[in-house]
UniProtKB/TrEMBL annotation:
Catalytic activity: dTDP-alpha-D-glucose = dTDP-4-dehydro-6-deoxy-alpha-D-glucose + H2O
Protein name: dTDP-glucose 4,6-dehydratase
Keyword vocabulary terms for this entry: Lyase, NAD
Family, similarity comment: Belongs to the NAD(P)-dependent epimerase/dehydratase family. dTDP-glucose dehydratase subfamily.
GO annotation, biological process: nucleotide-sugar metabolic process
Ranges for domain NAD(P)-binding: 5-333
One MF annotation (Gene Ontology) recorded for this entry: dTDP-glucose 4,6-dehydratase activity
Naturally occurring in which organism (per UniProt): Sphingobium scionense
Phylogenetic lineage: Bacteria, Pseudomonadati, Pseudomonadota, Alphaproteobacteria, Sphingomonadales
Catalytic activity, EC: 4.2.1.46
Cofactor needs: NAD(+)
Amino acid sequence: MANLIVTGGAGFIGANFVRHWRKISPNDGIVVLDALTYAGNPANIADVSNITLVEGDICDTALVSQLLADHAIDTIVHFAAESHVDRSITGPDAFVTTNVVGTHSLLKAAKTAWLDKGTGMPHRFHHVSTDEVYGTLEADDPAFSETTPYAPNSPYSASKAGSDHLVRAYQHTYGLETTTSNCSNNYGPYQFPEKLIPLFTLNALSGRKLPIYGDGMNVRDWLHVEDHCVGIERILRDGRVGETYNVGGGQELPNIEVIREICRGVDAAFAQNPGLADRFPDAPAAQGRSSEELMTYVEDRKGHDRRYAIDETKIRGELGYAPARNFPQGFAETLHWYLNNENWWQPLIERANINR
């Protein structure tokens, strides 16, 4: 039996991980530490049994230390982060504070609890990071591997690179038992509707424009969040201390193709279920038209990386990880979830006044 702190466990990936871990390890203790900022939502984990939700900041080292002691924590799974690139361009300070200073706060508390006090207890600090730390690829470049040099190009990716280096330093300098994973673009249930897939799905349902940066040919590797959680589980159980593992979905697609898949999926859903036209009357699909008519090209984002791709040879070979879904399968599941959970996403849109 393990006792976990999951930072950011009320956010998108963190909440899916909490759900996954509770399903596979029903007797483990789980403490969710989340600041409940705009992207953190207690509703994401409200129906998960036997967890403790603590509203708090990872920068509060004293709080983290108290939680480690009170709950006999032996595992930290660190998701908490500012993660939206557009927000990092307009307001980078929060990204440095949460992603760099916050990660250091957790590392300090973990070192004190697990090493300095001489308990000698087995432990693990797992840090969840991003493929964006590696920079950008040209069309013919090999995919990112764990040995690709870091070259972050946005304030977001730079802050995540800094946190990765701190985790590595605490392992090499102090002997803290750490692992790190760098993942590709996640999608799936409970994703806050500012990211591409939920944003464009909900825009298509409401008849709003689908704004495409530049020429739409920026390429990303797409990873269903539940496959990502399986990858993290494998690392926690069998990953080697001090190692980094890239976790990808094996679905390298240009943004324009992802957007077309969203449009095709929405149109097909309306064709199969005429009742959707009553729920979403402003959708082009409600009038038998194509959602693609909402596509519009806009000025490219500053510093927009052209291509990301993940080489997941290491995690496949060492830990037997493989994603279970291709993108059409994963998006079909995701669309079904959003169509059946309007009561989850509608209040978020109204409260956050998301610019769609």
